[in-house]
Structure formats: structure tokens, C-alpha cells
Amino acid sequence: xxxxxxxxxxxDLGGTNFRVALASxxxxxxxxxxxxxxAIDGRERVMRxxxxxxxxxxxxxxxxxxxxxxxxxxxIDQNGVILSPPNLPxxxxxxxxxxxxxxxxxxxxxGNDCNLAALGEYRFGAGRGRDNIVYIAIGTGIGGGVIIDGxxxxxxxxxxxxxxxxxxxx
Length: 170
Hints:
The protein contains three helices and ten strands; from the N terminus they run βββαβββαβαβββ. The chain starts with 6 loop residues before the first strand and ends in an 18-residue tail after the last strand. The longest helix is centred in the first third of the chain and has 16 residues, at 43-58. Strand 9 and strand 10 form a beta hairpin. By secondary structure, it is an alpha+beta fold. The mean pLDDT is 90. It has helices at 43-58, 96-104, 113-124, and strands at residues 7-13, 17-24, 29-36, 65-72, 81-82, 94-95, 108-112, 133-138, 142-148, 151-152. The strands form three sheets. Strands 3-2-1-4-7 form a five-stranded mixed sheet.
């Protein structure tokens, strides 16, 4: 991210709600908003509402936004494509990174919401100063993120800590 662009827009896209925040590069949240996802409305309508919310939260600072961080429930590939989100019907194989880069003309970093939450706790929250943490989220779904020796553990295919997507046959 360019040093002349001091702000980051963060988006947490969940099956029930989405959350948007404008933050400084140091992690200080300046503004935030939450709204229902209403995934049943379809991908295009949901994305329009999210884009409007991103612009409203950034408002006067929109020209100072140097990147967008997008966390989403479900498996994400290395190209920022959501493969099969359990709580977003009709979003299979959606190229999230490229869609939001095209819309906002800034770099977009896409990751599993729990992996990004684990990184956030490691850097700014309860995990600060620790080398190893496990983050578990229980909400609309179940997810987790793991930091080992100060690095996010994702496994060879990037899906190692998809705790809520394990199939168990009793």
C-alpha cells in the first residue's frame, strides 16, 4: 500500500450481516457500519449495498484509501475467489478480489474471515505478544484461524483451518 494513502477499508462479509470499517494503517478504527446481508436478494444487489456502505463509511477520506481488506466466511482460493460459501447462496466461484478492485481501483486483499480475525487479534488484540494462537468463531457458522510461530497457518491449499466445513459422518 502506498505511504500517501493512510486509510484501509475493511469489509467482513457474513451470511447474516456485513460490517464495514475505515481504519488507519496502524489499526485504529475511525468509522464503522453494520447492515443485514440479505443474501437471498442475490449477489448483485448485495454487492451494490456493500459498495454504497463502503463509500459512506469512507466518505471524505475515500481518496485516502489505499487498500480494501475483505474477510468472508468460506473457502477462498489464492486469487481471491470464494469457492463455495456456505452462507451466501449463488456466490460460488465469485472473483471477489477482481470485482472490488475494478469497483474501487485499489488493491483488495481477500481472505477467510476467521483467518483475518486471527491475524487481527495477533497483531492488535488479545494475541499481541504471543507466537501461537488459536481463534475460534461461532456465529452464523463455525470457523477458526491459527497462528503458529507468528505466521498464519493455512496449509498447502489454503483451507487448513476451515473448522466449520468439515464433514463428519456419525
